[in-house]
Amino acid sequence: MGHTYPGATVPFGAVQLSPETDTLSYEVNGKYNGDVYKYCAGYKYEDKTITGFSHTHFSGTGHSDLGDFLIMPTQGKLQLNPGTASNPKSGYRSAFSHANEVAEAGYYKVKLDDDNILAELTSTTRVGMHQYTFPKSDQSHIILDLMAGIYNYEEKTVWTYVRVVNDTLITGYRQTNGWARTRTVYFAMSFSKPFKSYGRKSYDAKQAYRGFWGKFNQEQNFPEIAGKKLKMFFDFDTQEGEKVKIKFALSPVSQENALQNMRAEISGWDFEKVKAQAQASWNKELNKVQVTTSNDNKFNFYTALYHAYINPTTYTDVNGEYKGLDQGVHKADGFTNYTTFSLWDTYRALHPFFNITQPGRSNDMVKSMLAHYDQSSLHMLPIWSHYANDNWCMSGYHSVSVISDAIIKGTYTGDANKALDACVATAKHRDYEGIGYYMDKGYIPAEKSGISVSNNLEYSYDDWSIAQLAKKLNRMDVYDEFIKRSNNWKNNYDSATGFMRPKLADGTFKKQFDPKDTEGQGFIEGNSWNYSFFVPQDPATLIEMMGGKKKFATRLDTLFTMHLPDEFFAHTEDITREGIIGGYVHGNEPAHHIVYLYNWADQPWKTQAQVRHILNMQYKPTADGLGGNDDCGQMSAWYMFSSLGFYPVAPGSDVYSLGSPLVNHAVINLENGKTFTVEAIKQSDKNVYVEKVLLNGKEITDHKIKHADITNGGKLTFYMSAKPKK
């Protein structure tokens, strides 16, 4: 499962208008429902029914939320429950076929078979546009389900408010409590034709006190509605082939702002014009990298580029206002505020990719992180930024890596010293996930954390990136402190076994230890075989501690060729054998740099061969073509970097490690007006080895290039061969 969605969005858009294919609850009988994991993006390709189209989605995540404001067109007898997948006619859902489904950048179309309605979707940054082609009927309906959501459960919706302004305009908001603890989304909904009647159904439990609203019949044609569990319906007469259109705008701030967003971004009712604008915006972004390669590889590359440019998402209204982490209204001064920072995943390759192809947006993303810090009651940079919340998902404090990388590569235009101060404050937040133990003991005792080892390794890398930033700013006291902290990874290295291993408070290693196991061994989303190579900031020292280059390379060979027993998969909900090569887990992020470590062990030909193997095995232009969740674009960014022949092993450094390009030719159109060209002469499925590399005609012998080599413009030429150059 890649957990991506097929619906309509624009680059970095606040609206992701996409179909939902079922209504699973997050819990069953008070316990986590494992099947809900299949619906992180709302859409599961194998399903045969659609329950409606909602306006917010995550792309590629392994946990979820959102699915706000589900709309479903129906005709015939009004049904307000979604029904079941086995009997779609028991509710408002509809059967559909992939034969009658089209997904393009910025556009989605599907035939709803049960009611013979053609659904089409497109979007702008803040507005979703629907176009529904109805049959002739005096019982045509648009349902607005305000209870629906992804990772839904009984008490998720805290409050909902709906105001019927007139017979074509509705406004309101919904507050939810879930992955984001306090999330409020405002909306404005406009119809292209007046509805003839409307109503609501409330599913709220009986309250002890409801005031005196009972004086009115609120079920039919009543203009102000509020409650926890509401569904609205709007009735129309339609002619054969008549198109009913909807504009649905979102805002993090207010109903008024949602309406302002709608009027600013879609003034009329020309669906084809909005679709053309959405697709033009995608063409502009996708043309930033122009590649020549085989058809399948080209499909993979531009799918990856598309997924990379979905997140992070705009979290600013057209007037510059946004909801802050303090739940107050703020104005973004001179930048676009972003949310959806899945940083444990994306610091590795996605944000470094932005520093090449989207430096302007990368600058705004760092400013967004620092605004988050300023508004945080805990004085911390984001861990996982999510709609004016931090959901605290995953480990590390990897915003410091993104910030350091952006400043070191010259992307960030703000106050670099203030940014460093925010990094330092976050890294010294003692009561966050073992940081106090890490600072005092140099490691996190296994008794104190179930992910003690991976936290130590990730904090050590993050501290190294802080040290690099401090060095650049000549803050040597900070550099000395954090370069020392960055060596804490050594405290979990067991020289007797050659593995990273949980250490107890008394300084001894935990006795029960299996480096292949992912459960109870001190790691998050991985095992010791993969995490033992997680020292991207200092591979040379790791190699020395593991017995030298030859032994290290042999150890890498074992990782890529070993056999994992079936027990390995017993506790992993997101990784199957398809996402693994030997014991190397590509479907999860901690190992993404590992294949490039052969370069440090003087066996670069193994990096070259294995990179190409991963590219061809883990990415396919099919419905099941990803070896794991896309994770907000990280899997895709790995693909693009590796296809272009270089990769950022340690963001926070300006160095990229060379591999084996999959493209024959590529041009990166830089924002500074220059171009960087990659050419792979004689590249083919057999010619995966690099004979020599030239940068602007001069041979490279150390298997690396620098960021300035790219941003200054120029040409990187690989001469490819079927034989390894040893």
From TrEMBL:
Keyword Glycoprotein: no
Domain Glycosyl hydrolase family residue range list: 257-721
Domain Glycosyl hydrolase family 92 N-terminal, chain residue ranges per copy: 2-251
Cofactor(s) it depends on: Ca(2+)
A GO MF term: carbohydrate binding
GO annotation, biological process: carbohydrate metabolic process; glycoprotein catabolic process
Name recorded for this polypeptide: Sugar hydrolase
